[in-house]
Design brief:
Layout: H1 6-22, H2 35-47, E1 52-53, E2 55-59, H3 62-69, E3 80-82, H4 87-95, E4 99-103, H5 113-127, H6 138-144, E5 151-155, H7 162-172, E6 176-178, E7 189-190, H8 192-207, E8 222-226, E9 232-233, H9 239-242, E10 253-254, H10 255-258, E11 270-273, H11 278-290, E12 295-300, H12 317-323, E13 326-331, H13 337-343, E14 353-356, E15 358-359, E16 363-365, E17 371-373, E18 384-389, H14 403-410, E19 412-418, H15 430-438, H16 443-446, E20 460-463, E21 481-482, E22 495-497, H17 498-509, H18 516-528, H19 532-545, H20 549-564, H21 567-574, H22 582-592, H23 602-610, H24 617-647, H25 651-659
Parallel strand pairs: 1-21, 2-3, 2-4, 5-6, 5-8, 7-9, 8-11, 12-13, 12-14, 14-18, 18-19
Antiparallel strand pairs: 4-22, 9-10, 15-16, 16-17, 19-20
Amino acid sequence: MAFPATAIMVAALAAQLAAARASPQGEVALPDMPWFARLGLRASDVNFRMPVADRVVLVPDEATFLDELSRWSLNARWPVLIEDDWYAPRFVRGFQPKEVVRRTSVATAMPSGEALHTAVDRAVAAAWSRPDSSTVTASAAFAAARFVPAGLVVTADDAPQRCAAAALAAWHGQPVAWLAGDFGTLGSTISESQTQALSTGVEGAARDCGYPALALGDAIETVTLALPMGIKATLPLTTQFTQVNNARSSQPAATSDAMCRLEDGTRWAVASSIVGSPAQSVAMAMSSAFLPREDALLWNGYPDTGQWQQYGFDPILPMMEESGVKPSARRGDAAEASDFRVAGVAGLTAHWLFIDSKGNWDFFDLANDSRADAMDVPLLVVPTPLYMVHSFSLQMPAYEPSIGARWLDHGVYAYVGSVQEPMLNGFTPPGLVIDRTLRLVPFLVASRWLEGPGDACWRIALIGDPLMQVRPIAKIPVAPRVAPETIPSDRRDGCQPIRAAAIQLLRRSQAPDATPDVLQAAARDMALLGDTALVCGAFAAAEKQGDPVASAVAPVALESLFLAGDHASFMRAIALVPSPSPRQLDFLWAMWTPAIGSSMDSPTVRYLASHPRQPRAQVDLSRLLPQMVRVMGPQETKNAIEAAMRACPDDGDRDKIAQLLRGV
């Protein structure tokens, strides 16, 4: 579908939106634009113009989350996260707020049944009303604001993603439908009957939502599936599910691609899923709503020949630069697997990530046929959307050592990836995806073919918020952040600034009778603030005090020491951690793997040799093996390999570890 030139489109956009806001009906006709372009215009008036308070609120539980969400209004919204030590600090580093506060628990259980449905509906209504409004239902609030929703959110009473569902409904202005049923778990392949039941349930929810749906160009153009479900689907033998690319296959399709299909197999909406625990799924929702997407890393692992050429990035770079999105493109000799490992040595900082690669769930081949392993998936400094042209990246998204599971765990909040071999043309070329996205088409919507044979039900899964957009920074302004002090005092009750709490803890830690947990708590609060330098300073202070203070602070400081690239302090800290977690071992190996080819000191080699990442320890040990033999000698090296074999829980991986003994 052809678009007008970027400058013309963006200039027209401002006039169209201004006219929409000024008209009595609150809308204008856009007859010359395809449905997905009109969707972009509708979504942008929410995504880029809603006032945002310059703060982040951390809450302890789901009930408090829902209560805090109900404090949003048309005057101001702000990020709300369920406090944890993994997703929350990443978000804060990306958002860089003026203040981060901790909300006191409401000390009540999360409502259930109809009480839960009512509470979520009232929270959505509050977000779409003025602070003094008496409107209590979302539909009434939308009507009063002369607003027509562009999407529908589907969740379940017991879904871990129910808070994320409430957040996305409140942010975008969407009705929420509650759907009961067993639709599998993330890593499963749902049966034909489950696929049909989910499809029927989603269609019924759209039909009953109160807004025109079930046809492209109607009000409802996206469906967010915020409920437990298998990412892969067995397609029933009914008309809409047999219209697949390359003929019907016995292999599964992507569940999100199988939803929202008419009887002839064409779409009536684009569906995507929200995944993970309450903390992860809420972080996914908040990242979509609030984080900037101002730069992109484009990693082309394909040759510049044949069919691979159309999946390159060079033609789109000028448009990205014109739009104000800063691209960093890697290809050819600068895009090999070793370069990828070096790029992640202190975490990736990109706001938007595109990768072209070949491979399976456990490895991906980059430029010049160089191979990276799933264990090379880098840590992310800030949450990131990902478009990965790769055959099987989401085949096993619930298996921790797989590519897809690692990306999601590391902070990817919008993900386009394949659940099975899709053939290369199953993917929309990244250049077209970026072109559409920079013209305001929501990222996940832009990632579908959207028309023609390529848009038949197939194997590309969408994870994340389907209404999330990337703003053409040079063309489309955003509403300025509102000072936290402008929020009415009753909407700030129960919140304590974390920086003030950290300072108080630091002072207490200097007292002669202070216990080790005081400085540990201070370091944790600094980490929640995203303040790497302060956390590193806290560890230095702890080391001066010696054990047990240093041992208490070390686990909290590891990520900050990794991000700071402080190898020496990191090794001293991790040596104080009795049993490093898988994430902490990821820091270790991401930091040292690029250096393995050089001469490493004996203590580092010995520590790495005794701490490979399970269950796929063969990946780490095979790379380290020459250094192990050099430093430890053959017998000690064999002992380390045999120890890894005993610790490995998987028979197949254990056999692969055993094969390393032949190289000693």
